[in-house]
Amino acid sequence: MHETLDSRQLKAFVSLAQTGSHTLSAKELCLTHSAVSHSIRNLEEQVACRLFHKLGKKVTLTEAGEALLFHAERALSEMRQARMTLAGLNKWGSRRLRLAVEAIFPPDFLTSVLLKFRREFPRSVIQVETCTPGQAASLLENRAVDLVLAAKPPAQENLEFLPLLSDRFHLVVNAGHPLAAKSKVSRAELAEQSCILLRGCGHERKALELFLLQRDIDLNIAAEVENLETVKSFVLQTQVLSLLPGWVIAPELKHHSFISLRFGKKPIEQSWGLVHHRDRSLNHAESMLWKFCGQQVGTLA
Hints:
The chain has helices at about 5-20, 20-30, 35-45, 65-90, 105-120, 135-140, 185-190, 200-215, 230-235, 250-255, 285-300, and strands at about 50-55, 60, 95-100, 125-130, 145-150, 160-175, 195-200, 220-225, 240-245, 260, 270-275. The protein has 3 domains: about 5-90, Orthogonal Bundle (Arc Repressor Mutant, subunit A), CATH 1.10.10; about 95-165 and about 270-300, Periplasmic binding protein-like II (D-Maltodextrin-Binding Protein, domain 2, 3-Layer(aba) Sandwich); about 170-270, D-Maltodextrin-Binding Protein, domain 2 (3-Layer(aba) Sandwich), CATH 3.40.190. The protein is of the alpha/beta class. The model has no long low-confidence stretch (mean pLDDT about 85). Strands 3, 4, 5, 6, 9, 10 and 11 form a 7-stranded mixed beta sheet that branches. The protein has a two-stranded antiparallel sheet with strand order 1-2. Helix 1 packs across helix 2, helix 1 (about 5-20) crosses helix 3 and helix 5 packs across helix 11 (about 285-300).
């Protein structure tokens, strides 16, 4: 009684209960008369109950049979629904994708990627949320998202990092800043300026502090903000400086609204990419999202 009931036997049972005839059930199931009889006999032995009364060539349900019919129909219905769900998932693009994105990725970057993804997978449901630096591990570990577009996290056995780009950080000011015209800036001059930073996680901040310490640079940090556009606006409109990766300020550098200051031979560098949990491989839709991100990176130069 504690064994799992065979779905083929349940199909034969439900069919026989509905038709009342072994012959009709055999025709309906594309089986022989004896195969239907054998299935019912095995099912009755397994549940230790008579399920049908015989009335000539017809059969009717016993009380036990009526009780089983209710559960058998539900079970078979759930199995059909499960197959339909899995069949839908196996069709490329007909699935959900949950993506978390660190704030350093500009809105136009993400918009371009999502538009390509939508055209390729029109039936896919994509959920996007902004995350703070350093959240990738917890979001993926708790199964809150499928992928995180982020700076390279510290090495962890359960996470895999798929790189998209690496770039150096620039110490930038606006074109009208007193330091903008200087060919090289001294440590003392840097220490006199107010600095606004894009807020990073613990390991990113430690890397920045180590970089500055090794070069004996003391920045006067006036603010740390999570929103990239806010940081850029402050640099453009006030006399503050900031330390930002070149790929997110490429248009400003190209049009000379931001000026990159020279302050050392070895700049700080960082990598960005897609992070996912190692316990599963990327599906087709997720692999295409990574591809679209790579294509968008190619337009940043």
